[in-house]
Design a protein that fits this description.
This protein has 145 residues and is α+β, with helices and mostly antiparallel strands. It has helices spanning 3-13, 26-46, 48-58, 98-106, 114-125, 135-143; strands at residues 62-68, 73-78, 86-90, 94-95, 129-134. The chain contains six helices and five strands.
Length: 145
């Protein structure tokens, strides 16, 4: 049995309801269950990309680049490879990485790549670095995509 399979089994077994004899109030037990359901849902939707995206976020690899004065923005997300490449990313529509074109666009096997997911999660959690540039500079960045 592979270690990743065992980790998955351990994780799934942790999704059970807390026992009533545990010293949690009803509200606390309910929040624990809801949290576990959300985790399972995210795992089922995004699979392998969820863990990779959270690693990127933990390493502070997401930057939100905002153009001034328009307020338009794009995310720059660091890859996990040795090269530490940075990818420009629209969380719902586009990423410049190979996985986006191969797994998302060509094969349709994933909803999004790990960079898009990292940008989405970081945006929701507010765990990104913010960089402000002129609209002209943002346009130059976008023209290189």
């Amino acid at each position: 049995m592979s270690s990743s399979y065992q980790k998955t089994l351990d994780w799934l077994s942790s999704l059970t309801l807390p026992r009533k004899d545990e010293r949690h109030s009803y509200g606390r037990r309910r929040r624990l269950v809801e949290h576990r359901i959300y985790r399972l849902s995210l795992h089922l939707l995004f699979g392998k990309n969820l863990e990779k995206a959270t690693r990127i976020i933990d390493k502070r690899g997401v930057k939100k680049i905002s153009g001034l004065p328009s307020g338009r923005h794009i995310f720059q997300v660091v890859g996990e490879s040795q090269k530490r490449e940075e990818y420009l990313c629209f969380p719902g529509d586009y990423c410049g990485c190979y996985s986006f074109f191969y797994d998302v666009v060509s094969r349709g096997e994933q909803q999004c790549c790990k960079h898009q997911l990292a940008a989405r999660l970081a945006s929701c959690l507010g765990t990104y670095s913010e960089i402000e540039v002129s609209d002209e500079h943002l346009a130059v960045m976008l023209s290189k995509i």
